[in-house]
Specification:
Elements: H1 5-15, H2 22-35, H3 41-59, E1 89-90, E2 105-106
Antiparallel strand pairs: 1-2
Helix pairs in contact: 1-3, 2-3
Length: 116
């Protein structure tokens, strides 16, 4: 059975206060009506319950943004090699399926040796 305007208002009034973040409720509400062809009360309740649970976890501080790798300055490296620039290791550009893909190799120029 299709969702009436009055049913939608009642559900919005019921679920909106359960979201920690008002914007998360608005986003969930909008996505439901954009994605569901023939909305009904049961489907909307299920949708909002699922998104409210995600909102609660997110706002509880349990889920954090992933940490991105940062560039490191390595001052102890001596940039004495034109091939590896003091890192002592190199990698080869290989296709993903290759058996040596992602493996580090000793620098062929300095052979991974630290200068005396």
């Amino acid at each position: 059975m299709s969702l009436s305007v009055d049913e939608a208002r009642e559900l919005a009034a019921k679920w909106r206060p359960q979201f920690q973040d008002e914007a998360n409720f608005e986003h969930s509400w909008s996505r439901f009506f954009e994605m569901v062809g023939d909305p009904d009360a049961a489907r909307l309740e299920f949708w909002l319950a699922k998104d409210q649970a995600k909102d609660a976890v997110k706002n509880a501080g349990i889920v954090r943004e992933p940490l991105l790798p940062v560039r490191q300055d390595l001052p102890d490296l001596v940039d004495d090699c034109g091939t590896c620039h003091g890192k002592r290791w190199v990698r080869r550009e290989l296709p993903v399926g290759h058996h040596e893909f992602g493996k580090a190799l000793r620098c062929p120029a300095c052979h991974g040796r630290v200068p005396a």
